[in-house]
C-alpha cells in the first residue's frame, strides 16, 4: 500500500510541474516540427513524376492481350493511366503531340513501344515495365509447352519480388526520433528521484516511517514510468494524427520497445545518482550521457551506422541507435521480430541498473 | 513505566566514535531534553532511536521492545520532527500531512480526520489547501511538526524544532509541545535555546563527546555546580567601603570593587545576603541595585562541558 502512496505523491508532483509538460511534450513536438520541416529535402532522394499516360492497341494477339490486362490493373494502382487507341496511327500521333507519354502495340510478333524524346524518364520507365512483362509472358509460354509435353500440369514458376522498403519522409523520421528521444529523456526525470529527497530533507522523514526502501524505489520508478509513458503516447498519437507520421502496422510492438527504453533510462538515471558522489556530478554525467546518446542515435539528423569507421562504431553503441533502427525495421520492413532483441536488451540493462541501485540502497544508511 | 530505555548505545563511523556507550531512560509522559554542543553526538543518538542509523553496539527498547528486532513496531510508535524542514513544496499542507500519515497505515476517513486534527493542533487549520511555498518560516516549522504527529505516536522526537523562527511561532510551538505532552505523548526535545529546555523539559541529559555527562531534573543538574555564587551590589558612593570588613561576613570568599559595584564571591550554601545588606546599612551606604546570580542550565552546561551550547 505504501508503494501506492509513493506513486500517487510522485504523480501529483510531476503533473503539477509545468516544466514537465514543456520538457517532455512541448519540446519534442516543436523540435519535430522544426527539424521535420527544415530537413525535409534531406529525405528526398528521387524525383516526383505526375501521372504517366499510356495508349495501347491490340492487334489480334488475344492471349497476349489477356495477360496485358492484368498488367493494366496493377499498373493503374501505381499512377499509370492506360487508354486504348482506336487505330495505330492515332496512338503514334498522340505521342508525337505529347498527349501521351508512350504508345504500345500488341501483335503476333510481340510488343512495339513508341516513346518520345520529350519524356525520356517516363519512356524509360514504361520500357522497363514492358520488358519485365515480356519476360514474364515468355516464361509462361515455356511452362505451357512443358505441361503439354508431360501431360501433367506443374507449377514451374515461382515469383519473388525485391520490393524496396518504403522510405520515411522527414516528418516520419523525426516522429520516431523524437519518440525515442523523449523515452530516453526519462533519465532526466529519474536521476533526481532519490537525490531530491536529500535536497528537500524529506529522506530522513521517509526513512523514519515504517516503509521499506524497496517500496520507495518501486513507487518512484512506477510513477516516473507512468508519467513518461503518458507523454510518449500523447506524442506518438499527436504525430500520427496531426502530422500523419508513419507508425506502421505494428504500433503495439513499437510502443512496447519504447516503453522498454523508458524503463532502461529510468533505472540508469537512478543508478547514476547512486554511483556519482555529488548532485553536480550526477547532473553532469546524466546530461552528457543523454546528449551524446541522442547525437549518436540520430535524433537530430540521420546517421548511417553501416558505413564502418570509428564514428559508426560509437553510433552503434547508443541505445537510441539500436532502438531507432529496430523501430524503422518494424515500421518500414514490416518486421515486428526486429524489435524483440532490442526490447530484451533494454530490459536486461534496466535490470542490471536496478540491481546496482538496490545494492547501494542496502549498503548505505538512509536514502 | 519507561517508554524508552537505552543501554550502552554506541555508534562508530569508521574510526570515529560519535556516540560512546550512552545509557538513559525516559519515563512515560516526560519531556526529555537532550543538550549538547554541535558534534556532541545528540543527533546521532536521536537518529538511532528514530531508526535512521544502524546501531553499532548497545540496545534501544521502545515500550519494552528491542527496536532492532521490532523495527516496524518502533517506527509506528515514533514521530520524528527533523531539524530541517522536511516537506514537499508542491503538495498542499493537507496533502503533505496526509502523505506522511498515510505511510503509517492510516486510510480513508480516519486518515483525513487525523490530518485535519494535526493541522488544527499546530494552528494551520485554515491553511489546509495552501502550498507551503507561500508559508512563513514559522508556519513551515509548524507543518513540519504536524507531519510527525498525525499518526498519534507514543514518542515524539523533536530535533531543534524552533530554529530560525519568529518569537510568536516559537511560543506557539512550545505551547504545542506542552499540549502534546498533556495528551500523553512522551517527547525527546533538543534545542540550542537553553531557556526553552529549561522552560518545558522535565528531565534533561547533557551529552558531550558522545557520552552522557549529566542527567536529571533541572534542579538536580543545578546542584552539580552550585558550590559558589556571585553577588553584585551597586552603591551610590563607594569611598567609605571597607572591603576587608566585608570579607569577615560568613561564607564570603572574595570581594572586589569595580567602579561603584562591589562583586562578592561567596559559598552558595551560606545564606549571607541579609548580613551583607545589614553591613551596608550600618555604614550608611546607599544601595542602588543588587543582583545575585542564580545558577541556570547555561552555567551548568558551561561548567560541565567547558564550552557554550552554541560552540
From TrEMBL, chain A:
<keyword id="KW-0812">Transmembrane</keyword>
<keyword id="KW-1133">Transmembrane helix</keyword>
<dbReference type="Pfam" id="PF12698">
    <property type="entry name" value="ABC2_membrane_3"/>
</dbReference>
<feature type="transmembrane region" description="Helical">
    <location>
        <begin position="173"/>
        <end position="194"/>
    </location>
</feature>
<dbReference type="InterPro" id="IPR052902">
    <property type="entry name" value="ABC-2_transporter"/>
</dbReference>
<feature type="transmembrane region" description="Helical">
    <location>
        <begin position="215"/>
        <end position="238"/>
    </location>
</feature>
<dbReference type="InterPro" id="IPR013525">
    <property type="entry name" value="ABC2_TM"/>
</dbReference>
<feature type="transmembrane region" description="Helical">
    <location>
        <begin position="283"/>
        <end position="303"/>
    </location>
</feature>
<dbReference type="InterPro" id="IPR047817">
    <property type="entry name" value="ABC2_TM_bact-type"/>
</dbReference>
<feature type="transmembrane region" description="Helical">
    <location>
        <begin position="338"/>
        <end position="361"/>
    </location>
</feature>
<feature type="transmembrane region" description="Helical">
    <location>
        <begin position="21"/>
        <end position="43"/>
    </location>
</feature>
<feature type="domain" description="ABC transmembrane type-2">
    <location>
        <begin position="138"/>
        <end position="364"/>
    </location>
</feature>
<feature type="transmembrane region" description="Helical">
    <location>
        <begin position="250"/>
        <end position="276"/>
    </location>
</feature>
<keyword id="KW-0472">Membrane</keyword>
<protein>
    <submittedName>
        <fullName>ABC-2 type transport system permease protein</fullName>
    </submittedName>
</protein>
TrEMBL record, chain B:
<dbReference type="InterPro" id="IPR017871">
    <property type="entry name" value="ABC_transporter-like_CS"/>
</dbReference>
<feature type="domain" description="ABC transporter">
    <location>
        <begin position="4"/>
        <end position="234"/>
    </location>
</feature>
<dbReference type="InterPro" id="IPR003593">
    <property type="entry name" value="AAA+_ATPase"/>
</dbReference>
<dbReference type="InterPro" id="IPR003439">
    <property type="entry name" value="ABC_transporter-like_ATP-bd"/>
</dbReference>
<dbReference type="Pfam" id="PF00005">
    <property type="entry name" value="ABC_tran"/>
</dbReference>
<dbReference type="GO" id="GO:0005524">
    <property type="term" value="F:ATP binding"/>
</dbReference>
<keyword id="KW-0067">ATP-binding</keyword>
<protein>
    <submittedName>
        <fullName>ABC-2 type transport system ATP-binding protein</fullName>
    </submittedName>
</protein>
<keyword id="KW-0547">Nucleotide-binding</keyword>
<dbReference type="InterPro" id="IPR027417">
    <property type="entry name" value="P-loop_NTPase"/>
</dbReference>
Amino acid at each position: 500500500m505504501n508503494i501506492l502512496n509513493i506513486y500517487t505523491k510522485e504523480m501529483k508532483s510531476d503533473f503539477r510541474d509545468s516544466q514537465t509538460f514543456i520538457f517532455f511534450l512541448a519540446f519534442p513536438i516543436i523540435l519535430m516540427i522544426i527539424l521535420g520541416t527544415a530537413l525535409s529535402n534531406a529525405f528526398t532522394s528521387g524525383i516526383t513524376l505526375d501521372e504517366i499516360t499510356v495508349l495501347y492497341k491490340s492487334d489480334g494477339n488475344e492471349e497476349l492481350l489477356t495477360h496485358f490486362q492484368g498488367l493494366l490493373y496493377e499498373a493503374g494502382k501505381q499512377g499509370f493511366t492506360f487508354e486504348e487507341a482506336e487505330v495505330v496511327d492515332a496512338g503514334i500521333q498522340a505521342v508525337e503531340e505529347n498527349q501521351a507519354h508512350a504508345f504500345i502495340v500488341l501483335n503476333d510478333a510481340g510488343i512495339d513501344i513508341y516513346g518520345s524524346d520529350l519524356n525520356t524518364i517516363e519512356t524509360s520507365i514504361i520500357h522497363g515495365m514492358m520488358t519485365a512483362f515480356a519476360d514474364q509472358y515468355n516464361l509462361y509460354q515455356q511452362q505451357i509447352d512443358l505441361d503439354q509435353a508431360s501431360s501433367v500440369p506443374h507449377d514451374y514458376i515461382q515469383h519473388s519480388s525485391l520490393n524496396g522498403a518504403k522510405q520515411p519522409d522527414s516528418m516520419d523520421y523525426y516522429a520516431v526520433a523524437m519518440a525515442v528521444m523523449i523515452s530516453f529523456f526519462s533519465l532526466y526525470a529519474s536521476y533526481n528521484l532519490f537525490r531530491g529527497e536529500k535536497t528537500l530533507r524529506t529522506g530522513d522523514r521517509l526513512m523514519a516511517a515504517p516503509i521499506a526502501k524497496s517500496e520507495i524505489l518501486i513507487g518512484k520508478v512506477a510513477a516516473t514510468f507512468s508519467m513518461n509513458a503518458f507523454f510518449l503516447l500523447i506524442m506518438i498519437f499527436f504525430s500520427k494524427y496531426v502530422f500523419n507520421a508513419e507508425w506502421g502496422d505494428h504500433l503495439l510492438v513499437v510502443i512496447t520497445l519504447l516503453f522498454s527504453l523508458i524503463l532502461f533510462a529510468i533505472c540508469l538515471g537512478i543508478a547514476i545518482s547512486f554511483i556519482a558522489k555529488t548532485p553536480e556530478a550526477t547532473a553532469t554525467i546524466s546530461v552528457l550521457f543523454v546528449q551524446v546518446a541522442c547525437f549518436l542515435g540520430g535524433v537530430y539528423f540521420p546517421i548511417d551506422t553501416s558505413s564502418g569507421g570509428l564514428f559508426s562504431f560509437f553510433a552503434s553503441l547508443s541505445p537510441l541507435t539500436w532502438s531507432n533502427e529496430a523501430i524503422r525495421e518494424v515500421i518500414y520492413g514490416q518486421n515486428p521480430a526486429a524489435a524483440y532483441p532490442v526490447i530484451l536488451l533494454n530490459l536486461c540493462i534496466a535490470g542490471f541498473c536496478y540491481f546496482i541501485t538496490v545494492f547501494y540502497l542496502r549498503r548505505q544508511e538512509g536514502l | 513505566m519507561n517508554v524508552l530505555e537505552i543501554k550502552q548505545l554506541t555508534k562508530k563511523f569508521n574510526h570515529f566514535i560519535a556516540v560512546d556507550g550512552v545509557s538513559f531512560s525516559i519515563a512515560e509522559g516526560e519531556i526529555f531534553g537532550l543538550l549538547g554542543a554541535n558534534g556532541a553526538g545528540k543527533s546521532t543518538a536521536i537518529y538511532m532511536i528514530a531508526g535512521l542509523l544502524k546501531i553499532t553496539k548497545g540496545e534501544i527498547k521502545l515500550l519494552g521492545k528491542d527496536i532492532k528486532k521490532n523495527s516496524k513496531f518502533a517506527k509506528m510508535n515514533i514521530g520524528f520532527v527533523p531539524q530541517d524542514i522536511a516537506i514537499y513544496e508542491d503538495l498542499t499542507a493537507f496533502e503533505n500531512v496526509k502523505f506522511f500519515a498515510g505511510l503509517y497505515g492510516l486510510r480513508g476517513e480516519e486518515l483525513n480526520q487525523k490530518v485535519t486534527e494535526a493541522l488544527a493542533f499546530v494552528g494551520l487549520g485554515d491553511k489546509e489547501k495552501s502550498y507551503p511555498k507561500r508559508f512563513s518560516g514559522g508556519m513551515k516549522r509548524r507543518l513540519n511538526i504536524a507531519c510527525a504527529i498525525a499518526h498519534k505516536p507514543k514518542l515524539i522526537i523533536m530535533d531543534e524544532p524552533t530554529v530560525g523562527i519568529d518569537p510568536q511561532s516559537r511560543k506557539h510551538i512550545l505551547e504545542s509541545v506542552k499540549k502534546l505532552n498533556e495528551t500523553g505523548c512522551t517527547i525527546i526535545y533538543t534545542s540550542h535555546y537553553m531557556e526553552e529546555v529549561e522552560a518545558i523539559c522535565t528531565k534533561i541529559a547533557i551529552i558531550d563527546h558522545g557520552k552522557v555527562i549529566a542527567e536529571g531534573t533541572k534542579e538536580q543538574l543545578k546542584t552539580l555546580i552550585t558550590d559558589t555564587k556571585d553577588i553584585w551590589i551597586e552603591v551610590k558612593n563607594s569611598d567609605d567601603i571597607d572591603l576587608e570588613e566585608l570579607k569577615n561576613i560568613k561564607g564570603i570568599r572574595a570581594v572586589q570593587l569595580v567602579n561603584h559595584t562591589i562583586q562578592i564571591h561567596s559559598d552558595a550554601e551560606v545564606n549571607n545576603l541579609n548580613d551583607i545588606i545589614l553591613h551596608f546599612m550600618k555604614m550608611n551606604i546607599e544601595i542602588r541595585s543588587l543582583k545575585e546570580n542564580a545558577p541556570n542550565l547555561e552555567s551548568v552546561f558551561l561548567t560541565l562541558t567547558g564550552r557554550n551550547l552554541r560552540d
